[in-house]
Amino acid sequence: MRYIAYIILFSIAFFDVMSQDVEVKSLSFNKRGSDELAPFFHDSVLYFCSNRKSSVIKSVFDQNGQYLFKLYQSKLKYNGTWTAPEIAYPQLQSEVNNGAFFISESNDVIYITKSQSFNIKSAKRTGKGDKFGVFEVKKENDNWQSEVKSLPFNSQNDYSTGHASLSNDGKYLFFSSDMNRGYGAADIYCCEKIDGVWGEPVNVGNRINTPRNELFPFVDSSGKLFFASDGLGGKGGLDIYYSVKEAGAWSEPVALEEPVNTEFDDYALMVLSNDEIGFFTSNRNNSEDIYMFKQMFPKFETVKPQKADKFCFTFFENGPYQSDTLPFIYRWTFGDGVKAKGLKVRHCFPGPGKYKIKLNVVDTLQNIDLMTVAEHDVELKRKEQVFISSADTVKINEPVSFNAHQSYFENLTPKDYYWTFEDGKKEKGVTIVHIFRKTGKQNVLCGTVDKNDSNKKFCSLKEIVVIE
């Protein structure tokens, strides 16, 4: 049962699939008859866990006669191929099962999910099943310490924790747990590090967590949270989603498109710093295998600076009544409920729409309209463009929210929005978050392509000022 596999580690056909936006490729070291899952890529090495048979270690089986899960590594060679998998960090691993692995951006701390039982016998003696926990290993003087520290939120008897992912700044640790204070079978939690100590786990809330399973959180360099869920009504089984934090709240989860998500179980996604390349697990080929995906961003040959929509105009008329002694005035009506006096006026309309503009001569003694001097029907439209909404001035090293909700097109249905930043980072989505790492003026590009005609494109540029 696939559910058992998730519990064990918490507890991806050898073919390429390609759409217009995403290319998915099964990795060469996937092995028939075994499961490979929970990939993590760091410094040209891909770490993953597998229940494959290894001649290096003692063959140990679970109660179903299956090999237990160990942590492996495979190095990406210069020619794009992978080395043969071998056991990784044997000194950190449990004799029972081992799961998700993570190395911090600063390369000074490891988090590993593994059994809290010392060996198979002790796991069987508990009577409550083997509970898993998140363990921490720190580096000192360029060497990994021998101490494998159990984190304070682990429980040896009541629940499991696992799948830890650390934010880029090292302040927040996300993980999954089936502790009973959640919304469902397994939820995602977050701890904040205060004065060097991890605080109490906080459930990330029911915008993300459901009555079912939310597993394998991963936080990218901009703070975007990826996770797997079988409770959000996806394509089937576990699907991969992401959410961004805006104004202190997580956004509505967005499902990744095919061919990443399928009718099968797709989970345990991690992305590299530019979000263009990543790895995930899927059982679309009758076993848990690891796949690599690559975002295929469209090219925009024409990029135009973003311009504000123009809804403010000056109106004037050379009327016949110029005397200050006559009891007549000129009064404009703009069709939006606003009136103004004078031959020359400035007016800003509330937005796009059709307006009837009139200039009347008014008898001020009787307060009646004597005649209509001018009358025009005007239709105001928004400028057809990708419109980038964000603050114009932002601070360095702080998350900045961007969105394209106010974009306007007459004959184009956006397939998606594609963002490019000067640091090489690329994002996809109508709402994204970016962190600027240097000060000064920086250009942000956002483009879109028609859903049905890839030759229809728009791309806008907005200048952002980044300060200390």
SSE topology sketch:
Blueprint: H1 2-8, E1 16-18, E2 22-26, E3 36-42, E4 45-50, E5 70-75, E6 86-87, E7 98-103, E8 109-115, H2 120-125, E9 132-140, E10 143-144, E11 149-150, E12 161-166, E13 172-177, E14 187-194, E15 197-198, E16 202-203, E17 214-219, E18 225-229, E19 239-243, E20 245-246, E21 249-250, E22 254-255, E23 266-271, E24 277-282, E25 289-295, E26 304-305, E27 312-316, E28 328-333, E29 339-341, E30 344-348, E31 353-363, E32 368-380, E33 393-395, E34 399-403, E35 414-421, E36 426-428, E37 431-435, E38 440-450, E39 457-467
Parallel strand pairs: 26-39, 33-39
Antiparallel strand pairs: 1-2, 2-25, 3-4, 4-5, 5-6, 7-8, 8-9, 9-10, 9-11, 12-13, 13-14, 14-15, 14-16, 17-18, 18-19, 19-22, 20-21, 23-24, 24-25, 27-30, 28-29, 28-31, 31-32, 34-37, 35-36, 35-38, 38-39
Write up what this structure looks like.
This protein has 468 residues and is mainly β. The protein folds into 3 domains: 2-295, Neuraminidase (6 Propeller); 312-380, Immunoglobulin-like, CATH 2.60.40.10; 383-467, Immunoglobulin-like. Helix content is 3%, strand content 45%. It has 2 helices and 39 strands. Strands 26, 33, 35, 36, 38 and 39 form a 6-stranded mixed sheet that branches. Strand 9 (132-140) and strand 10 (143-144) form a beta hairpin. The chain is elongated. The two termini are 53 Å apart. The relative contact order is 0.10.
